[in-house]
Design a protein that fits this description.
With about 600 residues, the chain is of the alpha+beta class. Helices cover about 40% and strands about 20% of the residues. The strands form 7 sheets. Strands 7, 8, 9, 10, 11 and 12 form a 6-stranded antiparallel sheet that branches. A 3-stranded antiparallel sheet has the order 1-3-2, with helices on one face. Strands 6-5-13 form a 3-stranded antiparallel sheet. It is globular.
């Protein structure tokens, strides 16, 4: 009898069996090998079709909805899939090569490293104008204070008519989520802080929200834009066909995931860290360099749609539809070995919509998938300001340390050393006037016009980045209220729009966290806080309470809040004065 290949579920196998006796024997042997029944049908040509049940492949394996399907597939299927996904990753990286180059070269404008220049002369100035660094730092400090206050970033509001039960539920959800973000999720605050610094530089950053099996809690981690790769045609994370997250993992951490059952327990040799140009530039600015023996795993976590062999989508007629289903396929970049394949849609979802784990934070909306940052918008102004600053410094250096020509025959002692202030050095002259033996090159003092031009360029960059001080208090204190409001609105227009985009992204992030709490919390979860004990119910995370950031989407700073309050007070005083004046006029009319 031909040997039955039990490597794939949902696969029909054709066996050439000459007589019905052999058919009965084959059916009996197959039923002994598996626990679930096997459908064996005889064809007219003497062959049989054997339909394997997916659960029959490995009876001892936990075949839950989110189980690792890579444990059930043969190596040839896994190798083909791993090679295809790795090729897609390489193509996606190539398609965004110009974006990476612009981001990498723009990092030099921060001026974290001083350049020792030898052109146009040795010792020329290598200073970088801090207009870009100032804009990034001030944005980060402003957004961090406003979006992540000390008491927690979450507030709630009731959907529909408020009731006492809904109000209690709303308070429980607010207290629990702030407790989780500020106390239990140790990585949230530093990762959010780092994300706000990278955001104005790259224009796009990401947060990944998921449940960590090892830590047994929800996690929200910062993902730099250079570690998340999407296809060329992608416009947003929601309709993206493929999302590939590059994860750096140590050998010990990978082993923990394998022993815990999250990844396949196969041998994968670690390789040297394969850094991108952006990562190399970031490490150089940080002052860190890679050692010779540093070996890490580069894990490619691919959120893709795949028509997985053996687990095809089946229609009502029982035949494969050819529709690709969402999976999370994890492979090691160096060896292309697949470590896990898991379904990426909810249990019982008839539409099989993919579950999104990523949130896209944009500084400014770009022309495609990635947003624009300050490197793209004021990078040219920063380069111009840096060039003007270096020219001014070089002009001052040349005018203070002049050079020129001397007549042949003039000998000066220690001529290789520069003359110090207050020092007179002996000169052997053949005769004649000493000043006629030297000719100074016509170096000019630093140009006042160039200094003024640099100031114009810097002011233009500051206006765009909204880091110039609001000049509301320096203006005419008797100005009309409408004029003051217009000045305030004009100075905060760009920053207010950026703040609203961050507000919308944070709301989406809190929604992903609420989904995790709804899935993994016990029915009642008590937890201790300062001053007592509280509890949260799993049913509290329903559609009756909306979870929002505590920040106001219309106000992005305390300065703006105070200025608006002062303007409203001035407006109220004006209205009360006009009302009092009208009252006096009315009383005077009645007296007459």
């Amino acid at each position: 009898m031909a040997e039955i290949d039990k490597s794939l579920p949902n696969v029909k196998q054709t066996l050439n069996i000459p007589n019905p006796q052999d058919v009965a024997i084959a059916e009996q042997e197959v039923q002994q090998d598996v626990e679930n029944p096997v459908d064996v049908q005889q064809n007219e040509d003497g062959s049989v079709d054997i339909n394997f049940d997916p659960m029959a492949m490995n009876p001892g394996q936990d075949m839950g909805h989110y189980s690792n399907l890579a444990e059930l597939l043969p190596d040839d299927v896994l190798d083909r899939l791993g090679s295809k996904l790795h090729q897609d990753y390489s193509d996606y990286k190539t398609s965004r090569k110009d974006w990476e180059r612009a981001y990498t070269t723009g990092l030099d404008l921060l001026g974290f490293n001083y350049d020792d220049r030898s052109e146009p002369f040795k010792g020329a100035s290598g200073a970088t104008h801090p207009v870009l660094a100032e804009a990034v730092t001030q944005f980060q400090a402003l957004a961090y204070k406003e979006l992540l206050p000390a008491e927690g970033p979450v507030r709630t509001q009731i959907i529909g008519l408020p009731t006492p039960d809904k109000e209690q539920q709303s308070q429980r959800v607010k207290s629990f989520m702030n407790y989780q973000l500020m106390d239990q999720m140790k990585e949230y605050e530093p990762e959010f802080d780092q994300m706000l610094f990278n955001l104005p530089l790259a224009g796009s950053t990401f947060k990944k929200v998921y449940y960590d099996e090892l830590m047994q809690r929800a996690v929200s981690k910062f993902v730099p834009a250079d570690d998340l790769v999407v296809p060329y045609t992608a416009t947003s994370l929601d309709d993206c066909e493929s999302i590939i997250h590059v994860v750096r993992m140590s050998e010990n951490e990978l082993r923990k995931q394998q022993v815990g059952g999250f990844y396949r327990d196969i041998e994968v040799n670690p390789t040297h860290i394969n850094e991108t140009e952006a990562e190399k530039k970031e490490r150089a600015l940080e002052g860190v360099s890679k050692g010779r023996d540093e070996r890490m795993y580069s894990i490619l976590e691919c959120h893709v749609n795949v028509d997985l062999e053996g687990f095809e989508d089946v229609g009502q007629n029982g035949e494969p539809t050819g529709i690709k289903l969402p999976y999370i396929v994890t492979l090691e970049e160096g060896t292309r070995k697949i470590l896990s394949i898991r379904r990426n849609y909810e249990v019982g979802d008839p539409l099989k919509n993919k579950i999104n784990y990523f949130v896209h934070f944009k500084f400014l909306p770009g022309l495609g998938f990635y947003g624009f940052g300050l490197i793209h918008m004021i990078g040219g102004l920063s380069r111009t300001a840096t060039a003007a600053l270096r020219q001014l410094l070089d002009a001052g250096t040349l005018s203070n340390l002049p050079a020129g020509f001397k007549m042949r025959g003039i000998k000066m002692r220690d001529e290789a050393q520069s003359i110090q202030p207050g020092e007179f050095r002996d000169v052997d002259a053949p005769g004649g006037n000493l000043k006629d033996a030297f000719m100074m090159l016509p170096f000019k003092e630093p140009s006042a016009t160039l200094l003024q031009l640099m100031g114009v360029v810097v002011q233009a960059g500051q206006r765009f980045a909204s880091i110039a001080d609001l000049q509301v208090g320096d203006g005419n204190q008797q100005a009309a209220v409408g004029t003051t409001v217009a000045m305030l609105e004009r100075g905060s227009r760009v920053m207010s729009a950026i703040h609203k985009r961050l507000y919308a992204a944070m709301k989406k992030e809190f929604g992903l966290l609420a989904r995790i709490f709804k899935l993994y919390l016990p029915p009642i979860y008590p937890y201790d806080v300062v001053g007592g004990q509280r509890q949260i119910k799993q049913l509290d995370f329903d559609d009756r309470v909306d979870i929002l950031p505590v920040a106001d989407p219309n106000i992005f700073s305390q300065t703006q809040r105070i200025s608006l309050a002062q303007t409203e007070l001035q407006l109220a005083d004006c209205c009360s004065g006009e009302k009092l004046l009208r009252t006096h006029k009315f009383n005077g009319t009645r007296a007459n």
